[in-house]
Design brief:
The structure holds two protein chains of two kinds. By secondary structure, chain A is mainly alpha-helical. Chain A has one domain. Chain A has eleven helices and two strands; from the N terminus they run ααααββααααααα. In chain A, strands 1-2 form a two-stranded antiparallel ribbon. The longest helix of chain A has 31 residues. Chain A is globular, with a radius of gyration of 19 Å. In chain A, 53% of the residues are buried. Chain B is of the alpha/beta class. Chain B folds into two domains: 147 residues, P-loop containing nucleotide triphosphate hydrolases (Rossmann fold, 3-Layer(aba) Sandwich), CATH 3.40.50.300; 74 residues, no CATH class. Helix content of chain B is 36%, strand content 25%. In chain B, the strands form two sheets. Chain B has a six-stranded mixed sheet with strand order 6-7-8-3-9-10, sandwiched between helices. In chain B, α3 packs across α4, α3 runs parallel beside α5 and α4 packs across α5. The chains are: A mainly alpha, B alpha/beta.
Chain lengths: 288, 247
């Protein structure tokens, strides 16, 4: 019983992070219709930004995560303007080649710049934990979860109430109608891409206290991210949150029954079952 | 009525491959005028609208809105300058409420809080405030058409282009809509209407342009156009006398 409860708590804590790193992928697809295969590499970039902010400036990765968000937002907005925008109206295969190419470029660029070494940070709370009854809550996991919840809440409020958020939702639903009410849809695409990859970088930075960073770390997450967004409903940020939590809990619970190496087996069985029963995902909808 | 020319179209053409959808059309629009654009299916009416609001770029010719050349500008820039349109097939933000749809239009000139007030005011004006909270995707076609008009009006246009907005309205709804047009006109709004419903066109328009095969074949008051031989031959079939309804 306690083991099961512990697994659910662990699953929710890691699922919250999956939700925030995947919501960016869903945001980009929902608003621009682009499936960004390079998305997970921005998690790696965020981890490196936070790592160097810690190593050089002595900043905790939780603070460094804000720097990662801003740096990668700006880089993403620039990439959207120069690389993504020209292929928005191209056949989907051009988008696939471009984003896959971007994935390799970022990964190999990081290898070239930083080498293949594994790097980690040291924080005061790294080995701390809370004991609640029989449940142990790891502090780095809890902080990463809380940061994800806060950023997710801010994203929700931004999309729901701000002028730009409303314009982004309108762009997602009908770009031409949005243009005719004066919305600069090109600008909205640029912000959406910057925000999408920025959030993923932020997510990468907040998990740095309990994970190591290396140039190919993104590849550990790419399949999980796509599982999360397809499970929740491609294009729906709310779906990414549900999908992220579901994936985290399924992984944690299945680790109780199966060896660690097989924890994704149950996940993918559930994934296939959900797709068979609800092909549009758990939460349907194209808007953020 | 002021004699200010608000829109000047000169030699406007648009070709799609070998097809000339709009061919060397010129006309002026006076502020506060209600102009009808009629013609058979495929005459180039919707293409003309799309050229005016920037959805299509002209192959040649010039469009000047309040003295500013707008040909080649994007639709959002033209909306900001004061001209927008509704769609023949009604394009709403389906997953948003009626209020949010209209509010999105009001954001062009207002911050969010004021846009909300402006949207409520507009919904009251067009008689839709009772469905403000409904999801746009759940509305009937006539309701959707009215929401789209309300959203376009919230952008505070100088010129509003209405593309077959009365297609699915019943007699009562049409009378309400004509009353709204009269009301908007009093406020100084300039309106261009593409419509197949001849009675409505003849009732509300000051002037009518008739297109056929992309070219302008006639221009004049409703009475002049109704008896114009080229219009009778190409579109009406017989002189319009006002005693018949649609088409």
């Amino acid at each position: 019983m306690t083991q099961g409860l512990q697994a659910i708590v662990d699953g929710i804590l890691i699922g919250g992070v999956y939700a925030i790193v995947s919501s960016g992928l869903s945001l980009v697809f929902g608003i621009m219709g682009v499936v960004n295969f390079a998305h997970a590499e921005f998690l790696m970039v965020g981890m490196f930004v936070a790592y160097f902010a810690w190593a050089i400036l002595g900043l905790d990765p939780l603070i460094g995560s804000l720097i990662a968000l801003v740096v990668v937002f700006l880089a993403g907005a620039g990439l959207q303007r120069t690389l993504i925008r020209p292929i928005l109206k191209a056949p989907p295969v051009a988008q696939i080649f471009l984003t896959v190419g971007l994935m390799f470029t970022l990964e190999n660029g990081a290898l070239l710049l930083f080498g293949a070494d594994y790097r980690s940070v040291v924080t005061s709370y790294q080995t701390e934990s809370l004991h609640l009854g029989g449940i142990i809550v790891s502090m780095p996991y809890l902080f990463a979860f809380l940061m994800s919840v806060i950023s997710g809440g801010l994203l929700w409020a931004f999309m729901r109430y701000s002028r730009t958020g409303r314009a982004m939702r309108a762009t997602a639903q009908d770009p031409m109608a949005a243009k005719l009410v004066g919305i600069n849809t090109d600008r909205m695409h640029q912000i959406a891409f910057g925000l999408g990859v920025g959030l993923t970088a932020f997510g990468g930075a907040v998990i740095l206290p309990y994970l190591t960073v290396y140039p190919t770390v993104g590849s550990q997450y790419v399949v999980l991210m796509f599982t999360v967004v397809v499970l929740g409903g491609l294009g729906s940020v709310a779906g990414a949150v549900v999908g992220g939590l579901a994936v985290g809990v399924i992984q944690a619970l299945s680790a109780l029954v199966f060896p660690m190496q097989l924890q994704n087996l149950v996940l993918f069985v559930v994934f296939i079952a959900v797709l068979a029963l609800r092909p549009s995902g758990l939460l349907k909808g194209a808007s953020a | 009525m002021s004699a200010e020319t608000i829109l000047q179209v000169r030699g406007l053409s648009r070709r799609f491959g070998g097809l000339t959808a709009v061919n060397d059309v010129s006309f002026d629009l006076t502020r506060g005028e209600v102009l009808g654009l009629i013609g058979p299916n495929g005459a180039g009416k919707t293409t003309m609208f799309n050229l005016l609001v920037g959805i299509h770029r002209p192959s040649s010719g010039s469009i000047r809105l309040k003295g500013t050349e707008t040909s080649g500008l994007k639709p959002n820039r033209i909306a900001k300058l004061g001209m927008t349109k509704t769609f023949q097939n009604v394009a709403l933000f389906q997953e948003s409420s009626v209020l949010d749809n209209v509010l999105t239009g009001a954001l062009l000139h207002h911050p969010v809080a004021q846009a909300r007030d402006a949207a409520h005011e507009m919904l009251r004006r067009v008689g839709l405030d009772h469905i403000a909270g409904k999801l746009a995707g759940d509305l009937s076609f006539p309701e959707r058409a009215r929401v789209e008009v309300a959203r376009a009006l919230c952008t505070r246009p100088d010129i509003l282009l209405l593309d077959e907005v009365m297609a699915a309205l019943n007699a009562v709804e049409m009378e309400e809509f004509l009353a709204l047009v009269r009301d908007l006109r009093k406020d100084g709004l300039t309106i261009v209407v593409v419509e197949h419903h001849m009675q409505a066109i003849m009732t509300m328009c000051d002037r009518i342009l008739v297109l056929n095969f992309g070219g302008l074949i006639a221009e004049g008051t409703p009475r002049e156009v109704a008896h114009h031989p080229a219009v009778v031959e190409a579109y009406l079939g017989k002189a319009y006398t006002g005693d018949h309804g649609a088409h």
